[in-house]
Structures are given as C-alpha cells and as structure tokens.
Design goal:
heterodimer, A: 150 residues, alpha+beta, Ubiquitin-like (UB roll), DNA polymerase, domain 1, 5-stranded mixed beta sheet, 38% helix, elongated, B: 772 residues, Aldehyde Oxidoreductase, domain 3, Aldehyde Oxidoreductase, domain 4, 3 domains, 7-stranded mixed beta sheet, 27% helix
Chain lengths: 150, 772
C-alpha cells in the first residue's frame, strides 16, 4: 500500500507493507539517523516527531503516518547543532547513538513547556534512555541550553 | 598545558547529534543479504538433525548454515591478548546447544521477512539434556557442558571440562590461616553478586562485503577490531591478510563488544555467496545471546587486631561463566588483583577458587569486570569488621589502605591470566579522595543516620576502590602522525573509540605535544588496513597505553619538524625550536604551513610520518572513594538514593568533562547493578529479563544528585600525568549503598541487587527478634 508522509517538509510517497513500522520505512529510504534500540518502545532511540510530538517509530505503523508530518533530526539541523554545543561542553554526548532522539525530544519539550523545573525536564525525557552518560551531564547541558534559549 | 587538562567538545559529538551516518548498520551495503539466526529454545540439548530443505526452497533464501557447514575449530570469542587466557570452547556453530538463545543455524536471505520465514521452516530434532542452572551445583555435576574432545586451553588456566570448570586459580601471600588464628577479631561472610546486562543502546551489529580488491571487509560494532580480524581468520581458516576490519562509530560497549558476535556469520555468508551481508541483533538476542557480567559467590574472612589493624584476608570465589568461558579466568583474577591491594599492609592473603560452566547466557567482559564484584564483598566485609571492632569505618580505611609510595605483593603475583608486574604507587591520592568525599556528602553531620520529619531514615555509607591502566607487557597501542601540506596532521590510531571520547583525548595529547591547535589534528581510528596496531578498548588501557603511544609519536614528529625547519632556515637543529605555529631560530622564522608546503612542493621534498608504540611496564591504578546517602521508608522498605559523591584520582584528566562523564556514567551503571538490575531465569532456563521492559536500567528520574570531583594528581609514567578512568567509576556503588542501607536500618544486604522486599524482610526479622 502507499503511505504519503511529509518528511522534513517534503511530501514523500512510500510503498509500505501493512505491518511495516515507520522506523523501517525511514531507514530503508535513507533517513539513517533514525536508529533501533530495543524493539519494545522502551528506550526512545527511534524517536521522531509526528505532527510535532515525539513518538517511538519502532512501534508506529507506516500506514498510520499517511497524511502526517514527520520530522527526523535531519529536519532540525540548526537546533541539533546548537544542542550539540551544550552537550559537547559537558562531555555529555558520549557514544552519540541516542543523541538525535535526544535533540528531537528536547526540541519538542522546548515548544511544549515554558520554564520547566528539573523534575519536569526529567519527566519529559524519561523515555529517552542513555546508558553512557549517567544523565547528570545531560541534565547540566539541557539546563544551560534552556537558559540561553529563554 | 595548552590543550591537555582542558574541556573540549568531542570530535564526533556534533556530527552524530545531527544524525550523520556513522554506525555499523548505517554503513552496510544497500543490497546486503540479511542474516538471521535460529536460536535454541532449550537450555541444553544435542542437535540430532536439521532439515533445511524447506528453508532453502523459499524464494529469496541464499544460504542456510548449520554446524555441518563448518570445520570443527574450537575458538574463544574473547578479544584479548594472544594466546588468549580464555578456554577455546566455542564452535561457530555446534551440534550441541548450551543455553537458550545459543546458535542453531543461520539463514541469509534477500530481506528480513524472508530470512525470518526461512527460520520458521527449519526443522530441528533435539535430544534434550539436563541443564545446570545453579552455579553452586555445577562443579562435578553429572551433567557436563563441554565433553567434546577438541576444546583446550592455550596455556594452563585450570580448565577441567569434565568437571564443568572453565578456569581455576589460587594465590598465597604469607600463611593466612596462621595470621587469622592470631587475630583478635575475625569475621567470616558470604556475598553474592548477580549477572548484569550491558544494555548498550546500539545492538550488536556487523556486516561484510568483498571489495574491489577481493578483500573481505567487515564492519563491526566491536571494541577490539584487531582481535576480530585474528579470530575470524583462525575460525574460518581464511588468510588474515585478506581480511579488513573497520570499526565505525559504536553505540556503547562497556565490555559487551569486547567479544566477537555476528562477525563469524556475516563473514561466512559473504565468503560463500560472494554477496554483501549484514546482521543486526534484536534486543532479545542482545540479552540472550551475547554476554553479561559473571555472577559470583564470595566467601571472605577478614582478621584484625582490636587497635584496628587489618592483618589477614582469605577469599574463596565461585564464578559463573555460563555456557562458554570468555574471560573466565581474567575476570576472576581481577576480582583479586584490582581489589585486595587496597589493603596492602596485611601480613597474609589467600585468594582462589573456580569458574564454572552453567547453562546460562555466557558471561563476558563488562566494565569493572571482577573489580565491582570483589569490591562489594571486600568493602561490605570491612564495614562489618569495623562494627565488630567498634572502629570508625573511615578511620579504619585511612589507617589500612594503600598510600602513595607504597606497593602490594599482589601486583607481582597476579596479572590478568598470567603473573603480574611489581609496581610502586607513584600516584595515589586516596587519602585526599576520602577526606574530600566526606566533605562533599556531609558525612560528619549525617553519619551514620538521620531520621527525617516524615519518619524516613537516611543512612550513609562509603567504599574505596582501585582499578588499573592497561595490562603491562601485553597491551600495546601505537599511533602514526602524518604531516600534510598547509601544516595540518592526520593522527591514525588503533585505539578504539566507543563513545568514551578516545578520539578526542588522543587528539588533545597529540596537539599538546606538537603545540598545534587540536583542530589541526584530524584523527582516524580502528581500521585494520589503515591504522596501526592496538589491542583495543578494554582493561582501562586507552588513555594510558594508547595515550603514551600518541605522545611518543607526536614528540617524534616535533623533532622531525624542527630538523626539517632547521634545514630550511639554515640554522643548527639545537638552536631551532617549534612552538606550534612557527619554526624559529636566531631571529629567523617560518610558519609550519610554509615549511610543509616547501616539503611537499618546493625543496627537500619528503613526507614526514612518525610512528611509535607503547606497551606498559606497569598498570598504575586510578583510585577513588565513593559515598552514598540513601533514604529508606521503614514501613515499606522502599529505598531511594539521595546523593552520591565520588572523588577520583586518575592522574591528570586529559579532558576534564569527558573524564567526569566516564565516572558519572560508570557510577550509574554501578548504581543500576546495586539497586535495579537483575538477570533472571525461570526454572526451565528461560531468560525472563530478555527485553528492556523486564530488565530495568536506571532512568534520569532516579539519578538526581551526584557530585564527582578529581584529586589533583600526577602519574609520572602516564601521558601528561594521566592514568585511565574508564572503569573505576563503576566499582564503589554496591558496597557504598549497601553499607548506607545497613547504617540506616541495620539490614545487611549480602545478595545483590538490593530490593525493597529484602530490606523490609530484614526489618521485619529484626522486629521478630525483638531488637527493633
């Protein structure tokens, strides 16, 4: 079947199977920044924005995305570069595997929450697991990023 | 120092954040065959027959591999020195399966769906065998996991397969029984540590292709590309010279990618079909079919005098290596060699025991291997001893622990798999670490416990730890620097970046030696055809071993630049200097860009390349002190970590931000092992925790307060005074947190992980016994 998805501002029509997940459609079509972590919607690595909201693309059927807007990190390059500066300053980027998904979730959080508390930040990002950093360096970087942006 | 001991962003962080392709599966050939593996549903069985006709008949299936397709060559998947200290007890595919998730057969097909369909068409007849699921019953069990005659050890490691023993070890300093008999206080305790899964975010991934020169090119998420090349060559009897292994970016490893995984199968498929192939493990496969931490039982005795002098340590260890013996002996030995030198003033010490096979997922390397297990046992036992002696545990440690300028006889006796290397601690700021840690956590005000207004109890606990910096006389790192026109450099290293920041810090070391900005040092690492040798990222070796190699290489390049500069300026070498920008002598001057353009295009043309290598003659330990504050609800046993303070002596921090996150990340993995993570099997051998919903790692909600600082320390043998820092952070949480729990509510956790249930049961038992 066909699924027409607006990916990063460009309308694309993909030939998809009924049981195909969005992560595979995107990866197979060159959006390799969308990566697989866990297969069970537990880790957040495969996050993309669907109509602006973070979702796990490993459990979202491609056919359901028909007619919707999907943003991968390729679609927020400027913001990702800015976030990377704050992560880099704290040494928080580490293996980098989860970082495109971190950038996307932060981008969505910034739009959704005004002046979030530490707890609100942690709650918003709780589904984005990281095994390298121990989180506290990420948190320092996120705090600094939000302060500069506001 | 201009560029060392300075925070710099990592060289790859921004590109990866922006989504640039870089990881193994991003780099697979577009039309790769997809390799999937049929895995055993039984913990222990013989394979009588595999009918692959139906699978082969399926359109799109290119190849089905079973044990009949491979020559029986016993190997070890452990990437470490050669000959390896691990038993050669694994076949690429075998006619026997030894754990649920063990490989039965592999299918290569045009796409994932076809490959999975083909797996379902494979018909396998099994003869089910009794599994060994309890590691305390494995020794001399009537069920033998490895009766096959081919398996062997490369040198004596105590392998006794007919007794289910993968390795065994024993060492002695002094006469421990005599010492303990003369001690005024002796304690005897038993501790258990559980298996732990690495849960690196990138699953194990590999792909293969034959390139335009006919070379077998493997991309692999590995910590040890050179070992991958060698072991592949040996296992497939394929010439080593025809294999190229490239390690791209890796999404975390922590030791879990120190062993080979899918490389064998993609190599075999591509060699057979001539077509590119790839394998990406599912998360279930990562849990069931790779490696986890060795569970251990410690029977430990400590003997001391009433004045608080520790006199003797006696330790017997039983370790569970699961179905195969990767790192069986080395992990075991580290449980002694990187733990017990902490208390170096004892009269005698005995350390020994066995590593046994069971029908569990194999154990392998995991950050802090052996050390975290041993540290939990020792540092818990020390607190128990202190209470019996009536001595303050901080004072006891201050009195008995290792100090600068001292040594321990253990260093010479125990290495990793072999004898060790004697060394004196030229840098050891443990005393500072302990003092500073007590300040950071507020020990004086809060120890041992406080009750909060809402009736919860906050307890304080601590532990000290040590690690190493590479394996002396074995681990070798090397580097190559190439000057380019316009005056910038390529640094080629075998060292393996796996997210810890090694490319970044090695570039900083080279820049410091050359005096040039780090932007002018462009680094490439871990391509077996293009970069020089390095044993890989393990044993906390990169900063110290590979870093020393880089420093030597850059120092040599600086000499070459001065020599060529002197020639160009017509000045004596001894009176010529290079400051990173200019070559200068007696008022004459030229820029590096001018010199390099001259060397390439105009006069005295030549390519400047320097190559050096380094192998340690010692393994200077980083040290640390860890302090935990926990809060317990005495009604429910619910425990929360309120604060963790850590002060680390790793010598100079090459990049303080990256070093700090190495410690923070290690701490959280250690906290996870202590409080959240458990590898659980059902009675029939099924792994219950085979997904990330059942296996719980810490989230950012649990980790809120953490204070990490570094001691001002300088290791004379390290590059710019640095020691390694990759593993030390993981070691202290089990003992520090369980000591804090004891100090809060009097419940001693002797079996990890800590759970609220265990604490509550302990509290209820106290009430029953009437000593509330």
């Amino acid at each position: 079947m066909k699924s027409s998805i607006n990916v990063n501002g460009t309308l694309k029509t993909f030939e998809v199977k009924a049981d195909e997940y969005l992560i595979d459609t995107l990866r197979n079509n060159g959006y390799v920044s969308v990566r697989r972590g866990c297969d069970t919607t537990s880790c957040g690595i495969c996050t993309v924005l669907l109509d602006g909201n973070p979702i796990a693309s490993c459990s979202y059927l491609s056919c359901r995305a028909d007619g919707h807007k999907v943003i991968t990190v390729e679609g927020i390059q400027e913001e990702a570069a800015l976030i990377a500066d704050f992560f880099g300053h704290e040494g928080a980027d580490q293996c980098g595997y989860c970082n495109p998904s971190m950038a996307l979730t932060l981008y969505a959080m910034k739009k959704e929450l005004k002046n979030p508390t530490d707890d609100e930040i942690r709650s918003y990002l709780v589904g984005n697991l990281c095994r390298c950093s121990g989180y506290v360096a990420q948190h320092r970087a996120i705090r600094a990023y939000l302060e500069v942006k506001s | 120092m201009k560029f060392v001991n300075k925070v710099r962003p990592s060289v790859d962080g921004k590109g990866l954040m922006m989504g640039k392709p870089g990881y193994t599966d991003d780099l697979a050939e577009v039309n790769s065959l997809v390799v999937r593996v049929l895995r055993s549903p039984h913990p222990h069985a013989k394979i009588l027959k595999i009918n692959k006709e139906k699978a082969l008949a399926l359109e799109g299936v290119e190849c089905v591999l079973t044990h009949e397709d491979f020559k029986r060559i016993p190997i070890t998947r452990a990437g470490q020195g050669y000959p390896e200290p691990s038993p050669h007890d694994k076949f690429i595919l075998d006619n026997r399966v030894r754990h649920i998730g063990d490989e039965v057969a592999a299918v290569a097909a045009s796409d994932k769906e076809t490959a999975e369909k083909a797996l379902s068409l494979l018909e396998v007849e099994y003869d089910l065998l009794e599994p060994v699921m309890d590691f305390e019953k494995a020794y001399e069990n009537k069920t033998v996991l490895h009766p096959e005659p081919e398996i062997h050890e490369m040198f004596p490691i105590g392998l006794e397969p007919m007794k289910n023993v993968a390795a065994s070890y024993m060492m002695n300093v002094g006469d421990v029984e005599k010492t303990l008999a003369n001690c005024e206080v002796v304690i005897k305790e038993t501790f258990f540590t559980q298996a732990q899964a690495h849960v690196m975010m990138e699953p194990h991934t590999a792909n293969a292709r034959i390139d335009y020169q006919g070379r077998l090119v493997i991309y692999s998420a590995t910590q040890t590309p050179i070992h991958v090349r060698r072991i592949l060559s040996q296992a497939l009897e394929y010439p080593l010279s025809k294999i190229r292994v490239i390690k791209p970016r890796i999404g975390g490893g922590y030791g879990g990618k120190q062993c080979l995984h899918g490389e064998f199968l993609v190599a075999a498929v591509t060699l057979r079909t001539g077509k590119p192939s790839k394998i990406v493990y599912t998360r279930k496969e990562v849990f069931e079919s790779t490696f986890s931490r060795h569970p251990m039982r410690f029977d430990i005795k400590l003997g001391a005098m009433k004045d608080g002098t520790l006199k003797g340590i006696d330790v017997d260890v039983l370790s569970d290596t699961g179905a195969y013996g990767e790192h069986a002996l080395t992990v075991f030995m580290v449980a002694g060699s990187k733990v017990f030198p902490l208390y170096n003033k004892v009269d005698s010490i005995r350390f020994g025991g066995k590593v046994v096979y069971t029908n569990h997922t194999p154990a392998g390397a995991f950050r802090g291997y052996g050390a975290i297990q041993g540290n939990y046992a020792l540092e818990s036992a020390v607190d128990i001893l202190c209470e019996k002696l009536g001595v303050d545990p901080v004072e006891f440690r201050m009195k008995n622990m290792m100090k600068e300028g001292e040594t321990s006889p253990i260093f010479e006796i125990m290495g990793e798999g072999t004898e060790g290397t004697a060394m004196v601690m030229e840098s050891c700021k443990l005393k500072y670490c302990v003092n500073r840690g007590t300040e950071l956590i507020g020990w004086k005000d809060k120890y041992p416990k406080k009750t909060t207004q809402d009736g919860k109890i906050r307890g304080m606990g601590m532990a000290i730890a040590m690690q190493g910096s590479g394996i002396p006389y074995i681990d070798m790192g090397s580097a190559m620097l190439k000057l380019n026109d316009d005056g910038f450099f390529n640094l080629m290293v075998g060292a393996t970046e796996l997210g810890q920041g090694s490319d970044t810090i090695l570039g900083q070391i080279a820049a410091e030696s050359l005096g040039v900005s780090p932007d002018k040092v462009v680094i490439y690492s871990s391509d077996s055809d293009l970069t020089p040798f390095d044993t890989g990222a393990y044993a906390s070796s990169t900063t110290y071993v590979s870093g020393n190699a880089v420093k030597r290489t850059a120092d040599k390049m600086k000499e070459m630049i001065i020599e060529e500069g002197a020639k160009a300026l017509g000045t004596p070498v001894t009176e010529t200097d290079f400051d990173g920008d200019n070559i200068e002598s007696n008022g004459k001057k030229m820029t590096l860009a001018e010199l390099s353009n001259r060397l390439f295009y105009n006069e005295d043309q030549k390519q400047l390349v320097s190559v050096e290598s380094y192998v340690g003659t010692k393994s200077p330990p980083p040290f640390m002190a860890g302090f935990a504050e926990v809060e317990i609800d005495p009604e429910t046993g619910k425990v929360e970590l309120v604060d963790y303070a850590a002060v680390v002596d790793c010598g100079t921090t090459i990049n303080p931000a990256l070093a700090k996150v190495q410690v923070e990340g290690g701490l959280v993995q250690g906290i996870g092992m202590t409080m959240y993570e458990d590898v659980v099997y059902s009675k029939n051998g099924t792994l219950v925790t085979n997904n990330m919903m059942n296996y719980r790692i810490p989230t950012r909600k649990e980790i809120t307060n953490m204070h990490v600082e570094f001691a001002d320390s300088y290791e004379p043998s390290g590059p710019y005074g640095a020691k390694s820092v990759g593993e030390i952070g993981i070691d202290t949480p089990p003992a520090a947190i369980t000591n804090a729990i004891y100090n809060a509510v009097g419940v001693r956790i002797r079996e990890l992980p800590v759970t609220s249930e265990k604490i509550l049961m302990g509290i209820l038992k106290q009430k029953e016994n009437g000593n509330e």
